[in-house]
Design a protein that fits this description.
single chain, about 425 residues, alpha+beta, 2,3-Dihydroxybiphenyl 1,2-Dioxygenase, domain 1, 2 domains, 9-stranded mixed sheet, 8-stranded mixed sheet, 12 helices, binds fe (ii) ion
Length: about 425
C-alpha cells in the first residue's frame, strides 16, 4: 500500500536520454479571460494565484497567470490581440488545455530527438533569458489542438527554485510583490492585487490538498486511438500501461475504448480514448462535437492523499461533481473489499458512510484500492473536466466504476440534449 505525496522522478540525475522527463513543468490552458479564470480555479479548487505576465511586465500580445497548488502548475493564457493564435483557438474550442509541458534536462535536445522520432514541430527552440537565468522551450504537436513543450531551466528559473516560490520565467512577476511595491510609491494598493492576496491567504489557511497531476486523458476521433498510441510509443518513447475495450467501458447505450500510455519513469500516464459504436452517442463523441471535431484533453486527474478532505473542501467551495445513484453503494463495499481481501490487502480504511455522503467512488484491483470523483465540465461546453483521485496501492483507473459512471454521464448528456 502506498501513499506517495511526491513523484519518484524528482530525484533523477541527468542521463544520456534526452527524452527523460523530470516533471510535468506545467499545464497551459487557453482561456477567454485569464484574470477571471484565475479566480474560478482559486476559489473553487484552492489554487494560489501566484504570478502574472501581462502588459505590466511587457507582454503585449497575451496575458498569462501562474496558478499553483502542491506540485501542480497551471498557466492560464488569454490573447490580448486577435492575431495571437490563442484568439482563434478560444473562439473555436472554448477554454481548454493547450500544452502539457515536460521539464527535461535539455529542451533543444529533447525536441530534436522527438522530431527525429517522427514528431511535427509546434515551435522551434527559443530561450528566454535575463540576468537571473534562462528558460529554454521547444514544442511538438500531439493530438488535435494540443502540444507538448519541453522546458529546461537554469539559474533562478530552475524548477526546484520555482517550486519554492521563485519566478516562473522572465517577464513573470509575483503578485504579492505587486501589492508590496504600491504603498512605497505613495499610492493605495491596487484593488485587484489585494483580492488576489485575500484569496491566496484564504487558500493557504484552507487547503484543498491537491498534490500533482496523476494522469491526463485525451479524446481522439473514432479509429485514431492506435495511431496516437503509436505516436506516444515512437515519438516520446512511452509504453502501454493498460488498455480497456468497449466491453469494459460500455452501457446499454454508449461506449468508448481506452489505452493508457506511460512515460518511461511512470512520471505521467496519458490514457487515450476513442468513441465506440453504441445505441446512443458516446461521451467522447459528445466532447468532439463541441470541440470542432478536434481531439483534445478530456480530463486532468489531480492527486490527493486524503480524498475525503479534498472532496469535502471542494464541495464546500461549490464544485459541481457527477452524482451517482444511491444504489451504487449497495454493492460497492462487497465488491471492493472482496477484491482487497482476495489479494491480501486490508479493507478500505476510509469511513464508509462519509464516502457515501460525499458521493465518492471506490474501486480496487490486485494492488490495492483507489478513491475518485469527477467534476462536471469546467466551462459551458461539455469538454474539459477534473478528476480528484487518491490511490491506496491501486495503479489503475477505476474500471469497476466505469458502468455506473457512464450511466451518470448519460443522464448529464441527456440533460444537455446530447445523447
Ligand atoms: Fe481518469
Amino acid at each position: 500500500m502506498t501513499t506517495a505525496t511526491t513523484r519518484p522522478a524528482t530525484a533523477l540525475k541527468p542521463t544520456t536520454d534526452p527524452l527523460q522527463l523530470i516533471d510535468v513543468d506545467h499545464v497551459q490552458f487557453y482561456v477567454g479571460n485569464a484574470k477571471q479564470a484565475a479566480f474560478f480555479y482559486a476559489h473553487c479548487f484552492g489554487f494560489q494565484i501566484e504570478q502574472v505576465c501581462d502588459l505590466t511586465t511587457g507582454s503585449r500580445d497575451a496575458a498569462h497567470y501562474l496558478l499553483t497548488q502542491g506540485n501542480i502548475r497551471f498557466i492560464l493564457s488569454t490573447p490580448l490581440t486577435p492575431e495571437h493564435p490563442a484568439a482563434m483557438e478560444v473562439a473555436m474550442y472554448g477554454d481548454g488545455v493547450k500544452d502539457v509541458a515536460f521539464t527535461v534536462f535539455d529542451a533543444e535536445k529533447a525536441w530534436e530527438r522527438a522530431v527525429k522520432n517522427g514528431a511535427t514541430s509546434a515551435y522551434e527552440p527559443r530561450t528566454y533569458r535575463d540576468e537571473h537565468g534562462t528558460v529554454t522551450m521547444a514544442g511538438i504537436r500531439t493530438y488535435g489542438r494540443v502540444c507538448h513543450s519541453f522546458v529546461s531551466r537554469t539559474g533562478a528559473y530552475d524548477l526546484t527554485k520555482v517550486k519554492q516560490g521563485g519566478v516562473f520565467k522572465p517577464r513573470f512577476r509575483k503578485l504579492a510583490e505587486g501589492a508590496a511595491c504600491e504603498p512605497a510609491r505613495g499610492c493605495a494598493p491596487q484593488a485587484g492585487v489585494s483580492s488576489v492576496l485575500a484569496i491566496n491567504e484564504y487558500n493557504k489557511k484552507n487547503p484543498c490538498g491537491l498534490k500533482y497531476v496523476d494522469h491526463l486523458v485525451g479524446n481522439v476521433e473514432m479509429g485514431k486511438m492506435n495511431h496516437w498510441v503509436a505516436f506516444y510509443e515512437n515519438v516520446l518513447e512511452f509504453t502501454m500501461f493498460k488498455h480497456f475495450d468497449d466491453k469494459d467501458i460500455s452501457t446499454d447505450y454508449s461506449a468508448l475504448m481506452s489505452k493508457v500510455m506511460a512515460s518511461g519513469n511512470n512520471l505521467i500516464k496519458m490514457p487515450i480514448n476513442e468513441p465506440a459504436e453504441g445505441k446512443k452517442k458516446s461521451q467522447v463523441q459528445e466532447y468532439l462535437d463541441w470541440h470542432m471535431n478536434t481531439p483534445g484533453v478530456q480530463h486532468l486527474a489531480l492527486r490527493t492523499d486524503d480524498e475525503l478532505h479534498s472532496i469535502a473542501a471542494l464541495r464546500s467551495r461549490g464544485v459541481d461533481f457527477l452524482t451517482l445513484p444511491d444504489a451504487y453503494y449497495d454493492q460497492v463495499w462487497g465488491r471492493v473489499n472482496k477484491m482487497l481481501t482476495d489479494h491480501g490487502h486490508s479493507a478500505v480504511k476510509e469511513d464508509h458512510q462519509r464516502v457515501r455522503d460525499l458521493g465518492i467512488l471506490v474501486d480496487a484491483d490486485d494492488e490495492g484500492y483507489l478513491l475518485q470523483l469527477f467534476t462536471k465540465p469546467l466551462q459551458d461546453r461539455p469538454t474539459l473536466f477534473f478528476e480528484i483521485i487518491c490511490r491506496r496501492g491501486s495503479q489503475s483507473f477505476g474500471k469497476g466504476n466505469f458502468k455506473a459512471l457512464f450511466e451518470a454521464l448519460e443522464l448529464e448528456q441527456e440533460r444537455r440534449g446530447n445523447l
